[in-house]
Write a structure and sequence with these properties.
Length: about 475
Amino acid sequence: MPHSQRSQAEALFLEGNRLLAAGDLSGAEAAFKQALTLVPDFIEAHANLGLIYNLSNSPQEAEHHYRQALTLAPQVAQIHLNFGALLAKVKRFEEGESAYRQAIALQPDYAAAWSNLGALLAGLNRDEEAEQCHLKALAIDPDYEKARFNLAYVLLRQGRFEEGWTYFEARDWHASLAAHLTCPRWQGESRVGKKLLIGYEGGFGDVLQFCRYIPLIKRLSAAEITLFCHPQLKSLLTTLEGVDAVIGYDEALPSDGWDAWLPLLSAPFVFGTRADSIPAALPYLKAEPERMQHWAPRLPETGFRVGLVWKGSPNHDNDADRSLSSLACLAPLTDIPGIQFVSLQKGAGEDETQLGSHSLIPLGREIQDFADTAAILAQLNLLISIDSAAAHLAGALGIPCWVLLPAYQPDWRWLNTGETSPWYPDVMRLFRQRRMGDWEKVIAQVAASLAIWVQENTATASL
C-alpha cells in the first residue's frame, strides 16, 4: 500500500474523530468510510463505525464493523467492551456478558469493563454479582463515577438507602447548573434569613417524588426557598409547603443571589434517609380548586372513574420496556362493568381513544401542564399507569394508583420486590412482570384485581 494512501486514510480517521467528538455522526461516518475505502483493514475505523452505528440505532451495521475490528485485532479489550455494550443494548445478554468477560480477561484492571458487566448483571437481577463487579471497578479506579452511580442503582433498589445515597451522589445530572451558580452547596446547616435554591434533576417523576423533601428543608434551614424546575411543573409546585418562589427553566436564572443551593435528588443524602425514615406523609401536593372546576364537566357522571396511562416518554432510557405497545394491551379491563375510563395519556399514544368496544374520554391533548393533570387525578377513583410521572403525581396527591412495572430494569425506586411502595404508602400498588416483555399476564392480574376492587367499592358505597 502506498504510504500516501495510508496517510490520507489516517487524516480522514482524525477528521472522523473530530466530527464524532463534535456530535456530527453522519459526517464522522462518511470520513471513516472513506478511510476504509483506502485502507480496508483500518481497525480503528471499523471500531469507530461500530460505535457510530450503535449510537444511531443501527445494530446490524454496528455488529458488522465490530466483528471486522475484532477479526483484525482480537487482543484489543476496548473493542470487546464496546461490542458488549451493543449486545447488551439489543438484549443479547449472554453474548454481551461474554464480550465483557473477554475484555476483562485481556485487561483485568479495566474498570469500565467491570462496571459495564455489573450493569448487565443488574439488569438480569443478579444483584450480588453486579455489586461485586462495581466494587472491583472502584477498587481499580476509586474515582470512576460511572461505577459509583451503577452501584447506587443496585443498592437503592435493595432498599440499602444509607449506602446507596452516598454512591448516588456520583450522578452528574446537575453539572451544568452547578457550573452556572456561584454559591456553595447546602450541607444541611441552618440558613436563617438566607436564600436557598433547590435545583431540579432528571424528569418530571423525579421532581414529583422528591419535592416532598422541601418542607423538611424549609424546617431545617429556615431559609427562603426558591425551586428551579420544569416549566410544566411550575404551577403545580406553587402548592407545595415550604416553597417561597418557583422559577421554570425556560426563564432566566441568575447565577448569584442565593446563599446556597441543593440539587433536589441530594435531599435524601443530606437527611440520611433510611427505609424506615422516608418522609411519606400524603398528600404533599394538591390540586387547585379552580382547575378542578374547569375539568369536572369533562369527567363521567356515573360509574367508577379510572384513569389510564400506557406510554412514557420515548426519550427515557428504558421506555421500550416500561411502556405498553398500544392502548389495546389494556383491552381485558373493559370486561369489568361499572367503570368509565379516562385517558391522561400525553404525547406518544394520546391519539389512541378506543379500548376494545369502549371509547375512552381522551383528555391528554387538552392537558397543558401538571396542574391540569392534578385537577383531573383528584377527581378520579383510581389511576392505572405504567411507570410514569402521572403515577408519581397520583401518589403525591394521595390518589389510589396501580403501577405496571417491567421485569427488565425497573426503576430502583420501586425496589426489587413487593406490591407496595414505601414512598407512597396505602395508595400505591405495584404489578410486576415476571418475564421480560410479558405484559399479558400482568394485565390479566390487573383485570382480576380491578373486578374485585369494583365489587368492594360498590359494596362500600351502598353502606
